[in-house]
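Supplementary Methods. Inverse-folding protocol.

Structures were first reduced to a C-alpha cell string of length 362. This string, shown here, constituted the complete conditioning input.
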C-alpha cells in the first residue's frame, strides 16, 4: 500500500490567520479496546502490524485547552489532571508538543493551559493514553482549523487528528473514530500506517457491542506499553506474530461481515493470549496475568460452552479482563458476571461499557 506523504499534515505559517489572541476549546474522546492487537512499532510511531478496535462510550477523557498568545517563542504550557498539577504529565506533553511543531507551526506562539479528567480509574485496564492523547489532538486540530485561512474538510480534520494522536500514543489514533477503527497497512481493511480509519462493515449483531471490564488488579503494570513494544525489536517470534496478525485480521473481517460470533470469539481470544504469550517469551520475560485472570477466562469459556451464550474475553497488556458480548445477551451475561466474575475482582469492581460514537466537542 502507498505511503501517505507527511506534507499532507503540515502547513506553512503563511496559511494561518494569527490575529486570535485567545481561544478556548474542549473535547471528550473515548478509549478503545483492540480486537486484533498492535504490538511492535518502527520509525515515527508506525505499527508493525494492522489492528482493529472497538471505540468505547463511557470510558473517556475530557480535555480543555486555553490558547493565549504570547511574546516569547517556544512551547510553554501548564497542565492539570482532575484539578491537580501533574509535573510528570506536563513534561511528557511538553516533549510531545515540541515534536509536532512541524505539523503545528502556530504552537510556539501560544501558551497552553490544559485541564484533563477521566471517567474511569487509573490502572483499570482501560487505555488512558488512547483517550487522553486523542482528546488533546482534537483540541489542537480544532484550534488549527480556527486559524487556517482555508478550512479543512471534516474527513481531513479527522485524519489529521488521528495522525497527531498516533504520534502521542499509537492506539490513540483509533479513538478519533466512532464504533470501530482500523490502523496499519492492510489489504483487507484498506488502512494505512499514518492514521486510523473508521471501520463500519459489520453485521447488526455487533452494533453497540458491550464491553464489561473486570478489574482483577488495579496495581501498576509490570511493564509499560512503550517498553513492551520495544521488546518486539529482537523477539524470537516477532515475524511470526506479524504474519499471524494479518491472518487474524482477515478472519475477523469475515466474521464481522457475516455476523459470525463464534469465529469472532476465536480470533479475539487468540489475539489476547498471543499478546501475553509474546511477553512471556520476551527477554526479559514478563507475566502480566494474575491468578484470577486465568480463573475468569476459564469461567467465561465454560459458561459459553455450557449455555451457548455469545460472550468472549480479550485482554490488554495487564491482568484485567474485557468481557465482550452483543446487546442481545446483555441481561444473561450481566447475571453471569455478577455471580461468577465479580467475586474474582479487586473490590468487586466491574466497569460496564459499550460501543460508542467517538469524540464530542464540549
Amino acid at each position: 500500500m502507498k505511503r501517505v506523504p507527511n506534507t499532507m499534515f503540515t502547513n506553512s505559517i503563511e496559511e494561518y490567520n494569527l490575529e486570535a489572541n485567545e481561544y478556548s476549546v474542549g473535547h471528550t474522546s473515548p478509549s478503545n479496546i483492540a480486537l486484533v492487537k498492535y504490538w511492535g512499532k518502527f520509525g515515527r510511531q508506525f505499527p508493525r502490524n494492522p489492528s482493529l478496535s472497538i471505540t468505547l462510550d463511557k470510558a473517556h477523557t475530557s480535555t480543555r485547552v486555553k490558547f493565549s498568545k504570547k511574546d516569547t517563542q517556544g512551547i510553554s504550557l501548564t497542565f492539570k489532571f482532575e484539578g491537580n498539577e501533574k509535573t510528570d504529565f506536563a513534561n511528557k506533553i511538553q516533549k510531545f508538543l515540541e515534536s509536532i511543531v512541524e505539523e503545528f507551526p502556530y504552537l510556539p506562539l501560544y501558551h497552553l493551559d490544559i485541564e484533563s479528567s477521566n471517567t474511569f480509574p487509573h490502572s483499570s485496564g482501560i487505555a488512558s493514553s488512547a483517550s487522553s492523547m486523542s482528546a488533546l489532538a482534537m483540541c489542537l486540530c480544532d484550534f488549527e482549523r480556527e486559524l487556517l485561512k482555508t478550512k479543512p474538510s471534516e474527513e481531513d480534520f479527522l485524519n489529521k487528528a488521528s495522525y497527531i494522536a498516533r504520534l502521542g500514543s499509537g492506539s490513540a489514533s483509533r479513538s478519533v473514530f466512532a464504533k470501530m477503527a482500523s490502523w496499519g497497512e492492510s489489504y483487507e481493511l484498506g488502512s494505512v500506517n499514518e492514521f486510523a480509519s473508521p471501520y463500519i462493515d459489520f453485521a447488526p449483531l455487533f452494533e453497540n457491542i458491550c464491553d464489561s471490564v473486570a478489574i482483577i488488579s488495579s496495581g501498576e503494570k509490570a511493564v509499560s506499553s512503550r517498553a513492551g513494544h520495544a521488546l518486539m525489536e529482537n523477539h524470537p517470534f516477532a515475524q511470526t506474530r506479524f504474519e499471524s496478525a494479518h491472518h487474524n485480521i482477515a478472519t475477523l473481517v469475515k466474521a464481522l461481515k457475516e455476523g459470525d460470533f463464534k469465529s469472532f470469539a476465536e480470533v479475539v481470544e487468540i489475539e489476547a493470549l498471543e499478546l501475553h504469550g509474546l511477553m512471556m517469551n520476551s527477554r526479559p520475560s514478563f507475566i502480566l496475568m494474575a491468578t484470577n485472570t486465568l480463573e475468569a477466562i476459564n469461567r467465561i469459556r465454560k459458561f459459553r460452552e455450557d449455555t451457548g451464550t455469545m460472550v468472549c474475553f480479550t485482554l490488554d497488556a495487564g491482568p484485567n479482563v474485557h468481557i465482550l458480548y452483543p446487546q442481545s445477551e446483555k441481561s444473561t451475561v450481566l447475571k453471569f458476571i455478577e455471580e461468577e466474575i465479580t467475586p474474582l475482582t479487586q473490590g468487586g469492581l466491574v466497569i460496564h461499557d459499550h460501543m460508542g460514537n467517538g469524540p464530542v466537542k464540549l
